[in-house]
Amino acid sequence: MNLSFIPAAPAVRKAPTRAFDLIAFDWDGTLFDSTGIIVRCIQAAVVDVGGQRPSAQAASYVIGLGLMQALAHAAPDVPPEKYPELGRRYQFHYRQHQNDIVLFEGVLPLLAALNEREHIVTVATGKSRRGLDEALQHSELKGVFAASRTADETAGKPDPTMLHELMAQFDVPPERTLMIGDTTHDLQMALNAGCASVGVSYGAHEPDAFHVLQPRHIAHSVSDLQTWLLQNG
């Protein structure tokens, strides 16, 4: 028998080795470079309704919370009856600048690499559904995320409802779920849901506050985040 004519067996494609099946990303300050604009819009909205202009630190702390929860926290001297107007003024200022907001450099290759490894890539954000849907209109983001949840359709962070719903949708247990965010609200939500987390230091909150919330890693750039995820995620 001439063995040279025996065809080679087809290559078997191995399933990717993953520690986490579902990865949930926060939006502002994690994927989108929007922290500075959000801070300025919060400050302007508070002044518009007669409140004292919050410091940049106070305004950045509330990023990631639901809109009304965030504005109320940032403007403790504004009476509750003015909250609806406060929200409208924030949305007015934000819409003046929303087209100035861009993805952090390296985010698109990161998301592509995770999808290539067949992770379920999702979003869990304090943005409104309307705000997130507008952001997702960017052509390069179409089809990137398997699902998303927003604060106004579930509950604001650190309530774990967003993560619970995403896990239920894809039948993924908490130990196979990873939350990635730039605030203590994101990492506390992960703890509340029984999930692991990764913090990023380039967003709204100082990373020194992350350690008590037990993130698996603190990434100091998108490149750092991608390297860690491909090695450990």
Class by SSE composition: alpha/beta
State the low-pLDDT regions, or none.
Answer: 1-15
Number of domains: 2
Q: How many distinct beta strands?
A: 6
Give the CATH class of the largest domain: Alpha Beta
Question: What proportion of the residues form beta strands (DSSP E)?
Answer: 5-15%
N-to-C span: 48 Å
* Tally of DSSP helical segments: 9
Architecture of the largest domain, according to CATH? 3-Layer(aba) Sandwich
From the alpha carbons, calculate the radius of gyration and give it in angstroms.
20 Å
The average pLDDT is 85
The largest β sheet comes out as: 6 strands, parallel
Shape: globular
Helix content: 25-40%
Taking strands numbered 1, 2, ... along the chain, how are they ordered across the largest sheet?
Answer: 3-2-1-4-5-6
**N-to-C order of helices and strands:** EHHHHHEHEHEHEEH
Spell out the CATH superfamily of the largest domain: HAD superfamily/HAD-like
User: What is the CATH topology assignment of the largest domain?
Assistant: Rossmann fold
